[in-house]
Design goal:
The chain has 579 residues and is α+β, with helices and mostly antiparallel strands. It contains 18 helices and 24 strands. The strands form 7 sheets. Strands 10, 11, 12, 13, 14 and 15 form a 6-stranded antiparallel sheet that branches. The protein has a 4-stranded antiparallel sheet with strand order 2-9-4-7. It has a 4-stranded antiparallel sheet with strand order 3-8-5-6, with no helix packed on it.
Length: 579
């Protein structure tokens, strides 16, 4: 029988491990003399989350030398940076991967370590060493150095930022990849603020959020536009004119998962669609081009007295070029061909139609314009010849309409590594579960159950979401993205067992478990005399060079880890198994 003896240890708390071990009260006093902190009122912050404590525990001072790389485009960010002294350069164009030192540095288990793990019997699940339950300070890696800074400045568009400016806040708060590369122009002293502290600073002082929005328009908007498809041929001078007329808009709630769990999940598909905020309506005047800054958008068209989902959009995608191109060069004027709705929370940029016609459409090639015309004509023909049956014909690359609606309604469009199981092939042998258990200390990290669409089931396994809402509210930053691969991981040492991530996950893919020592004794908090729990979930076997053990172990090709946020990746596997 499993042991029920409990050993008492000190339960970790939010600030047991400060972000920067070198940060001192004296340094915080100096920070409070600088903008924007000197404009903040300490009285606005609760005693449990005081301004002084946030700066002491959620920030650290970082020094960089000329040419040192601070952040890289494409890396996942967890922090923002305030320039205390010196200057940094923001590169507005993508740099060659080799120049950025791109390589995966994930620490993988060796072959012999894997053999040892497989051959060593594990008596109890969720074993931890008591001394390792609390974290040790994070070691800083030496920054990457850009060799030829003058050459880089001559070849690429860059923007200089100086004392008092802030950068990196969008990736930190949005749980998204960095949109630009930033390096030190001279000797630089930065205050790095991890996203939990930045969130609290903005929560209790509205002036900081206003300041950050102004900085985004000033420093980052042009870079965002440059990365958007079909903007690459727009001259920089015109791009700046476009940026001046961009409108910011948002729909829905940032913490959308709470309403989804409490209310929407129990509704019918039609009721859920009705609750989603309308961004634009089919048939209305096409008044601009919409760029998705963050979140998800459902694209539907009318189908009798109801609506049918045709696609969905996420960060970096845009909508409206087909309608605007048709109206620009055709005598036939049309309105919106679809209705757009916010799925959860959506942050958008809108470029007015006159601006698109003046600066963007003239730069498009005849091939691109022809493709937009053909897309508009196809949708117009669909509207005039809408079938009355429940099934629709699809192009070869399109996903079945029913499957699309299932993915959107269940919010699986968020997944980048969704576990999809073909129940027609699955023999219920449980080899996938056993392989996961063997790889994770006798405790599998997923459940072979979940919602189904026809023969396909989405299992209860972490999907490593585009928008990992589980990270919202984590007080210590224990749940985070791997900087190189984007895998969502849990730092076992800094997890305090608060259950915030498990309660936030809309898919039920994070579990709280009681942990034991190597003798099987449950670890108990010295102060509250309660068992110590930790959050646990699928980590994609990130420390195994062979990839996810579940997929590798399936003998019938019934299980795959696939992005349900990109229909193009999903379609080939679905069609192969449906056939």
């Amino acid at each position: 029988m499993a042991s029920t003896i409990q050993k008492e240890i000190a339960k970790p708390k939010r600030w047991d491990v400060p972000f920067g071990e070198q940060m001192t009260p004296a340094a915080v006093e100096e920070l409070l003399k600088l903008a924007p902190f000197r404009e903040m009122s300490a009285d606005r912050f609760p005693q449990s989350c005081a301004l002084f404590d946030i700066l002491l525990n959620d920030t650290r001072l970082q020094e960089y030398q000329p040419g040192d790389l601070i952040v890289r485009e494409g890396d996942y960010g967890h922090s923002a940076f305030l320039i205390i002294s010196g200057n940094v350069r923001v590169v507005l164009e993508s740099l060659p991967p080799a120049l950025l030192g791109r390589q995966v540095k994930s620490k993988k288990k060796s072959f012999w370590t894997l053999c040892r793990d497989w051959l060593t019997p594990v008596t109890y699940p969720e074993i931890r060493e008591a001394q390792d339950v609390q974290a040790s300070p994070e070691e800083l890696s030496k920054p990457l150095f850009l060799q030829d800074v003058p050459g880089l400045l001559n070849q690429h568009q860059t923007l200089s930022l100086g004392t008092g400016e802030i950068f990196g806040e969008l990736a930190a708060l949005g749980r998204t990849p960095r949109t630009a590369t930033v390096f030190a122009e001279n000797e630089v002293l930065l205050l790095e603020i991890r996203w939990q502290g930045l969130r609290d600073l903005m929560k209790y002082d509205a002036a900081l959020k206003t300041h950050l929005d102004q900085l985004y328009r000033q420093n980052s908007l042009e870079s965002h536009l440059r990365e958007t498809p079909f903007f690459d041929q727009v001259p920089l001078s015109q791009l700046r004119q476009i940026a001046e007329q961009v409108e910011f808009t948002s729909f829905g709630q940032f913490e959308w998962f709470r309403d989804y769990q409490l209310n929407l999940k129990s509704m019918s598909e039609a009721e859920r669609v009705e609750k989603e905020p309308v961004i634009l309506t089919e048939g209305a005047y096409a008044e601009g081009l919409y760029l998705v800054r963050s979140g998800f958008v459902r694209v539907t068209h009318s189908f009798g007295k109801s609506e049918r989902t045709t696609s969905y959009l996420h960060k970096g995608q845009c909508y409206g070029l087909a309608e605007l191109a048709m109206n620009w060069q055709s005598s036939r004027q049309i309105g919106w061909l679809n209705t757009l709705r916010a799925v959860g929370y959506v942050d958008l940029l809108r470029i007015p139609t006159p601006v698109v016609e003046e600066f963007i459409l003239p730069t498009l090639s005849a091939t691109d314009l022809g493709r937009f015309f053909a897309d508009a004509e196809r949708q117009l023909e669909r509207k005039s010849n809408e079938p009355v049956s429940a099934s629709l014909s699809h192009d070869a690359d399109e996903v079945d309409t029913g499957l699309l609606e299932f993915l959107v309604d269940q919010r699986y469009i968020n997944g980048t590594e969704t576990m999809l199981i073909d129940l027609n092939r699955c023999t219920r042998c449980d080899d996938c579960v056993r392989a996961c258990s063997d790889a994770h200390g006798n405790n599998p990290r997923f459940l072979r159950t979940g919602p189904q669409y026809e023969q396909f089931m989405i299992a209860h396994a972490c999907m490593h979401c585009l928008d990992p809402v589980c990270m919202i509210g984590c007080p210590t930053g224990a749940i985070h993205r791997d900087a190189a691969l984007g895998t969502v991981l849990i730092n076992d040492q800094t997890c305090i067992g608060c259950s915030t991530c498990a309660n936030s996950c809309p898919y039920g893919n994070i579990r709280m478990v009681e942990v034991r020592d190597e003798q099987g004794e449950f670890l108990r908090d010295q102060e509250k005399k309660q068992s110590i729990t930790k959050a646990t979930k699928c980590d994609l076997c990130h420390d195994h060079s062979t990839g996810p053990a579940c997929q590798r172990a399936c003998p019938h090709d019934a299980l795959v880890r696939v992005s349900t946020s990109e229909p193009g990746q999903l379609t080939p596997w679905i069609r192969k198994h449906a056939g």
